[in-house]
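ok trying again, last paste got cut off:
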Amino acid sequence: MLDHFFAHPFLFPLLLIASSCLYLVIRNLLEYRAITKLGSFAPRAHSYLPFGVDILYRTIRHSHNNTDIDFWEWLFAWSPNKHSKTVEVGLARQRWIFTADPGNIKAILATQFQDFGKGKRFHEDWKPFLGDSIFTTDGQQWHDSRQLIRPQFAKNRIADLEIFERHVERLMNKIGGRGEEVDIAALFYRFTLDSATDYLLGKSVDSLDNPHAEFASAFAEVQKVQNMITRSGEFNALIPKGTYWAGLKIINAFVEPFIEQVLRLNVSYLKEKTNPSFLDALAATGIRDRNAIRDQVIAVLLAGRDTTAGALSFTFQELSAQPEIVRKLRREILDKIGASKPPSYEDLKSMPYLQHVMNETLRLYPSVPFNVRQALCDTTLPTGGGPDGSQPIGILKGTTVGYSAICMQRREDLYPPPSADFPTVSKYSPERWDKWTPKTWTYLPFNGGPRICVGQQFALTEMGYTIVRILQRFDRVSKYWQDGGAQFKSEVILSPKNGVQVGFWEREIG
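nice, full thing came through this time. structure:
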C-alpha cells in the first residue's frame, strides 16, 4: 500500500490541503455556532486577500501616514446603520471588533470590566517596554500596581506646584517674546520630560537645556516601534526592532542608577523624607524588586510626560488661531491672580474658562485616541450586532476589541444640533461648555471605570499651571503654522504631526 501511495507524489500534498480546508471549515462552523449562541455578528469590513492582509496593510499605511482616524472611519462605513459605529474584521486567524459606540465602551471599561482586559498578547508585546506595570496587567497584579501608585497622586502631592514653577520658568525663557517663530510642541515635550523626571526620580534630565538628550530620543523611538508592534498583531515578527532594543537599553541605563541609589536607603528614612520623589515614595512602601520599580516608573513617565505635552501643544495650536480666546482667558487669569503671582492649586480650579479651554482641547484631541482590550472570557457587547445594529454582539474569549475615544468624541450624532450657542462639533470652542455637559460615556479623555487614569489630576494641574504662567507673561500668540498643516499622529499618545509653529509676544509693562 505504501508503494502505491508513493507512486502518486501529488497525493500527499492534496490530502494535506484537503484536511487543512476541512479543519478550517469545521473550526469556522464551531466558532459561528458559539458566537450566535451568545449574540449576533457585527457588520463586517470586507477583506479581498487571505487572512485580511489588505486590511492589515491599510492600517499600517494609515499609521505611517498619521491618518489613523481615516482608517477607523473607513471601517465604520461598512456598517449599514450610520448611527452604529461598531464593525468587525478578520485578521490572520483572529476576529477583531472596532467600536466607537458609548454603550460598548461603557461595557468594556465599567459594567463588564471583569470580561475585558489587556490580555496575554498585549502583555507579551509590551513587556520589554512597560514590563508588569499598571498598563500591561490584569486581575490582582493590576490591582496591586494601582494600589501602589495611587497614593503618589494624592492631592497633597500634586498641589505642591514648585516643580512645575521651576521648569516653566526655564520653558518661558526659551520662547522669545517679540514674535519669534518657535515650535512650541517640541519645547513642551522637553518641558514635560524635565518636570516628569524631576517628579519621578528627584532629578531632571534637563532636556530644555540639552535638546539632543539621548534619553528623550530613545523614549520617542521606542514608542514609535511599540506602536507598530501592537498594530501588526500576529505579524509583528516582521517589524524591524533594532532601534527598539537600542532605545530600551538607553532608557534602562538611565533609570537603573536611580533605583539602585534609592534601594540603598533605609525605608524609615524614606518615610520621613521631606518632599520625596515618586521613586522615594515607591521604595518607602517596602518594595525591593528592582524590575517592579522600574516598570512602574517607566509607565508613569509615559503617561505623565507625553499626554500633557500633547494636550498643551494642541491647546496653543488652537489659541494661536483664535486670538479672542487668548484675550478672554488672559482676562480671567489677570482678574483672578494678576500678572505675576504663581497660581495655587485652588486658583486653577476656580477659573471656569481655563477649565473649559482644557476640556475642549481634550474633547477634540484626547490623549489616548485609540485603545484595545481582549475578551478574558466568552461574553457580549451590548450593541452593534444584527442588520440594524441594535442587537448584542457575541464575543468569544481571546477576541481583540479596539475602541476609539477620538472617533466617539467627534460623532455629530452625539451632540446637540449646531446653533448660535453651540458650534459644529469640529470647531474648537471653549464657550460650548458654558451651558453644556457631555452625556455619560461620550467624553472619556482619561478613560473610565476602574482603569480611569490615576494621574489625571496631576496632568490637568500641570497643564493648567503652564497655560496660566505663559499667558501671564505673554499677551499674544501668533500663528505661523499653515492651514492644513495642523495634523496629528498617534504613536500610543496623540501628538501634533508637524509640531506647532507659533510666536509669543511679551506683555508691555508701564
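cool. DSSP finds 20 helices and twelve strands in the chain. The first helix runs from residue 2 to 6.
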